[in-house]
Amino acid sequence: MIISDTELKTLIVKTGILDQQKIEDLANLAKNSFSTLGDVLIERDVITDQNLGLLVADYFKLPFIILSNISIPEEVFRIVPQKIARKGKVIAFAREDGGIKIAMSDPRNIEIRDLIAKKTGARVTTYYATERDIDNALRIYRKDLQKAFNDLVKIVGEQFVIEKPDEVPIAKVVDMLVDYAYQDRASDLHIEPKETDSLVRFRIDGILHDMLYFPKNLHERIITRIKILAKLRTDEHLSAQDGKMRILLEEENLDIRVSIIPIVEGEKAVLRLLSSHFRQFSLIDLGMSKEDLKKVTAGFKKSYGMILSTGPTGSGKTTSIYAILKILNTREKNITTVEDPVEYRIAGVNQVQVNTKTDLTFAHGLRSLLRQDPNIIFVGEIRDNETAGIAVNAALTGHLVLSTLHTNDAASAIPRLIDMDVEPFLVASTITLVVAQRLVRKICDMCKTSYIAKKDELEQNIPKNLMQKHFGDKDEIRVYKGQGCKVCHHTGYQGRVGLFEVLGVSKVIRELIAKKSEPDVIMKQADIEGMTTMIEDGLQKVLKGQTTIEEVLRVTKVEMA
Asked: What's the DSSP call for residue 156?
């Protein structure tokens, strides 16, 4: 951002948006989460991106432009090459009276301005635009992947695709696929062979989208290129292979986990993009409420016990644990993890990769960790009886243990551990906290709109007691949805937020665990003690305009009528 955090603190206090104490608290939060103060202010709904932009532009006496409010002609947008636009955060948005208007996140960058003036021979007028606004504009006016692929193929001529596929620049094709997936904030890139062609799909916000079809005779070469980058065997076509690779993008060195398996039509590749964009989240960024955050903070401030994060695959369990580890990561503590795989590196934390070939399993790795004088241990997943037993004993002997489990809700984690032959009294003695979570898609801010929903229609899918608790006696309720735009690929959603339920283990709940009570009994007691369930957390986010009722019902397994 053009303004420093120190200058921004002064500006926010001077304009009366926050007092000195609150801005200092947020500045500390930004520092601890490796984020900027501006990003924290926006994520906490203290100020919108547009209003922050107006404030900064006024502070520096710069003209301000909101790119999302204007239509940029195609020929004007192409004035600045895409690489320069992305790296320098600059966009040409208008051409009139012999001059060009450009938007920059840092208008003090005279070098780029002079470069554009020299290239076009025109007078250049500089405007300030926020970095988020520029990023959204770059995505909106970027060629779609199918067109970009077709244009790349035309470099060698369309006839070569069928007749001479070896002439197609496969390295550029693979780089383009990864770059587009990264720009679309995809978590996974699928390359699937079909009977007559091949399909590329991106998983964006948990949902797969068809992005590109290409000729089948290019498929094997693309897979071979990926194998080379991931250091896999190129002559093996009948076995599953896993590997890693790194691709240099304008924004970062992107680590990618590669999985290739043989299917009927050929080899399918799935690339998991491990972007640093997803590494810096705090628990509040992930969507945890202040009340739940207090419970979690109280849990990890203890020097012993076990904290469990539960949910299905892809629900953000490991991300939540990493957010806790970043808070706990201080020089006076020894934090050691055993993971499969180690997806993100955390500076100062000793991370061990499971390796079954050398018999370094979760259980064996955890047993070795206990001889490493740890204060805090993170076990990537409790999968078997041996791992469960060692983890519980570690928590009993003065270590803080964090781990994940695959269960549908918080209370179900208790019988799951007991089923792994851990004595109920040991579970009751060690479990401090169980966090269950899901991820829902957030409504796109660029096309968000409100509408009135009828209470009687909602009651067909939501229990009446919850309707009464969260919506009161209103017959009509104002909720929100996304209309669909280029920024969100016309889905109405962009980004994701977590739904949480945090089960704190009180004295009464410990007694219930020791008695091997059913999950329903534990959940009922937790409800009496004030626990917010995932569907309740979801309904609160619906009222705040963060997500839709359909999304909440989808991930909490409540079917729509």
From this structure: T
Nearest C-alpha neighbor of 90 from the set 127, 145, 63:
127
143-276 topology per CATH: Beta-Lactamase (3.30.450)
461 φψ region: left (φ > 0), alpha (ψ -120 to 50), beta (else): alpha
Beta carbons of 348 and 331 less than 8 angstroms apart: yes
Cα separation values, 271 from 148, 213, 281, 344, 494, Å = 20, 17, 22, 15, 21
- The pLDDT confidence band at residue 560, using thresholds 50, 70 and 90, is very low
Show the beta-strand stretches assigned E in 5-75.
none
Is the predicted pLDDT of residue 280 greater than 60, yes or no? no
Neighbour count for residue 436 (Cβ, 10 Å): 25
CA distance 261 to 246: 20
Predicted confidence (pLDDT) per residue in 335-383, tens digit: 999 998 887 788 789 999 998 889 899 999 999 999 999 999 999 999 9
Give pLDDT, residue 165: 55
In which band, very low, low, confident or very high, does the pLDDT at 34 lie, cut at 50, 70 and 90? Answer: low
Strands (E) across 221-324 are located at 241-248, 253-263, 266-274, 305-310
pTM of the model: 0.79
Distance between CA atoms of residues 33 and 279, nearest Å: 9
CATH architecture, domain defined by 5-138: 2-Layer Sandwich (3.30)
Give every CB contact of residue 501 below 8 A, 6+ residues apart in sequence: 292, 409, 410, 435, 436, 437, 531, 532, 533, 534, 537
CA distance 282 to 290: 12
d(CA 320, CA 322): 5
pLDDT digits (tens, 9 = 90+) for 107-155: 888 888 898 888 888 899 999 999 988 988 888 887 788 888 888 777 5
User: What is the rounded CA–CA span in Å between residue 349 and residue 352?
Assistant: 10
Say yes or no to pLDDT of 31 above 80: no
Residue 559, amino acid = E
- The answer to whether residues 558 and 535 touch, using CB atoms and an 8 Å cutoff, is yes
Phi, psi of 308 (to 5 degrees): -115, 140
Please check whether residue 496 is in contact with residue 441, taking contact to mean a CB–CB distance below 8 angstroms: yes
Task: List, in sequence order, the alpha helices (H) in 420-494.
Answer: 424-430, 455-458, 464-471
With b meaning 16 or more CB within 10 Å and e meaning fewer, what string describes 180-201? bbbbbbbbbbbbbbeeebbbbb
Q: State CA 304 to chain mean position distance.
A: 29
| Beta carbons within 8 Å of 244's beta carbon, 6+ residues apart | 230, 255, 256, 257, 258
Residue 416 phi, psi dihedral angles, 5° rounding? -65, -40
Domain ranges for the chain? 5-138, 143-276, 290-555
Q: CA 493: distance to chain centroid?
A: 13
Residue at 323: amino acid letter: A
The CATH number of 290-555 is 3.40.50.300
